[in-house]
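Hi V.,

Quick status before I head out on leave. The structure for the redesign project is tokenized and pasted below; the design run finished overnight.
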């Protein structure tokens, strides 16, 4: 059969992660200004009518909305797929946007005598956003727009790969697999179809496959399968390597799949040697740390009182941690556990650790316990953003169990980081592996925009009381 015969497949329409985020950002603003125009022209209100000099308040509104939408996770695709979560986030985002907008002098319209217009302003934003987000959930985020994936890989990895991809992006659906090790899996998800190599081309057309993900070493791809993949590639069909897809949709580096080809996966960010980036980062670190320490002076009486009542013992706690290039330093924190918490020996902290005091729990959830580390930042031992520093005993243990663990020490440890705002609490080696994947992604891609993203997500963590 000629190659062109296979060109008749039409893949399902699917929006990539970046495309969905762009759609959310653009149409959020489109619906906001559309509703403002309808409401204020329909009711003949003057407050936000579009005039020749309206660009000032339009710009301010866009800035405030974009900022608070990021803080309140309006562009988190998993949360955006739930209308209940979307409703809560829309109300929070619009409330803060409107509050800051009306309190901004000079660049925004003078407050109207009829304060009811401000209520209409709030309502128009909420209504416009909910209309658009409801449409998004029922159309773009619906199963009909799922990306249908066929995995080429070893039987042992199939279930794990399918689960990892779906958890990272619910719209990424693995529908079947081509087994490359010729071993019948003991158990696999019955929803996954086993595709024979001889039937690969027909299966792609029959099941409207959008993309093939190759998760098998090159030696596992036999001649027949290789030839079929070449035919598809020559037709422009998307074929990608698993680690590339994994990193793209999870924002983690899959160290467990890197093996000897590590140099392919760790082309570290140029920002690690970029003098301008390093200078700006260092300058911002010093300014931020100094300001936070000054502001903390106002909170100090309350912290001292809370420590006296519900956290009896020393206020501060120091602990040796491993920093950049493996150098040890003493990290400073507000104490959150009982005195002599490790009298029985060193142990992992748990998510619901009974050693944490009532006041210590409050300090942890709000991240206030980390504030004294600003002293470490001023001393040059830490940065605002980077992998969290770990204790030497755990570094030794984890370096022996987890590949490439020491790579996280090529940059300064951070007060907050990509793993802290994306990963779950590390209670075991497996959890630490996940956090390492996030840390390596940050080291590989670090830049000013990623740093800003982490700062906004850190604010979200504090607001939603998700500190650990």
């Amino acid at each position: 059969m000629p190659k062109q015969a296979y060109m008749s497949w039409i893949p399902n329409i699917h929006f990539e992660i970046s495309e969905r985020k762009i759609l959310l950002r653009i149409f959020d603003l489109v619906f906001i200004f559309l509703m403002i125009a309808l409401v204020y022209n329909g009711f003949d209100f003057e407050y936000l009518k579009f005039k020749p000099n309206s660009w000032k308040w339009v710009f301010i509104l866009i800035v405030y909305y974009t900022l608070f939408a990021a803080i309140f996770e309006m562009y988190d695709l998993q949360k955006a797929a739930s209308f209940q979560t979307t409703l809560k986030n829309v109300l929070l985002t619009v409330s803060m946007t409107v509050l800051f907008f009306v309190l901004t002098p000079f660049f925004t319209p003078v407050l109207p005598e009829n304060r009811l217009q401000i209520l209409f302003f709030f309502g128009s934003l909420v209504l416009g956003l909910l209309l658009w987000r409801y449409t998004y959930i029922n159309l773009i985020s619906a199963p009909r727009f799922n990306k249908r994936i066929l995995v080429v890989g070893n039987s042992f990895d199939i279930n794990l790969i399918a689960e990892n991809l779906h958890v990272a992006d619910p719209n990424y659906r693995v529908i079947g697999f081509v087994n490359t090790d010729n071993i019948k899996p003991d158990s696999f998800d019955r929803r996954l179809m086993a595709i024979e190599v001889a039937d690969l081309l027909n299966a792609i057309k029959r099941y409207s496959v959008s993309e093939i993900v190759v998760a098998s070493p090159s030696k596992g791809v036999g001649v027949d399968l290789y030839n079929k993949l070449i035919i598809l590639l020559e037709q422009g069909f998307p074929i990608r390597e698993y680690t590339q897809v994994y990193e793209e949709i999870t924002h983690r580096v899959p160290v467990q799949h890197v093996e000897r080809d590590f140099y392919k996966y760790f082309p570290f960010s140029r920002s690690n040697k970029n003098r301008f980036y390093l200078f700006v980062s260092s300058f911002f670190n010093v300014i931020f740390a100094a300001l936070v320490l000054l502001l903390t002076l106002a909170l100090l009486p309350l912290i001292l009182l809370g420590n006296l009542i519900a956290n009896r013992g020393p206020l501060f706690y120091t602990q040796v941690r491993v920093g950049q290039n493996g150098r040890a330093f003493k990290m400073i924190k507000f104490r959150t556990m009982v005195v002599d918490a490790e009298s029985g020996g060193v142990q992992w902290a748990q998510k619901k650790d009974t050693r944490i005091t009532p006041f210590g729990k409050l300090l942890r959830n709000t991240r206030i316990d980390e504030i004294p580390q600003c002293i470490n930042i001023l001393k040059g031992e830490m940065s605002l953003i980077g992998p969290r520093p770990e204790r030497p005993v755990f570094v030794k243990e984890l370096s022996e169990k987890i590949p490439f663990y020491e790579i996280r020490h090529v940059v300064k440890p951070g007060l907050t980081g990509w793993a802290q705002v994306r990963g779950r609490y590390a209670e075991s080696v497996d959890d630490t592996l996940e956090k390492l994947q996030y840390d390596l992604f940050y080291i590989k891609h670090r830049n000013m925009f990623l740093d800003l993203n982490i700062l906004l997500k850190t604010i979200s963590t504090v607001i939603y009381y998700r500190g650990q």
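Above is the designed sequence. The chain has three domains: 17-138, 146-250, 270-463.

G. will cover questions while I'm gone.

Best,
W.
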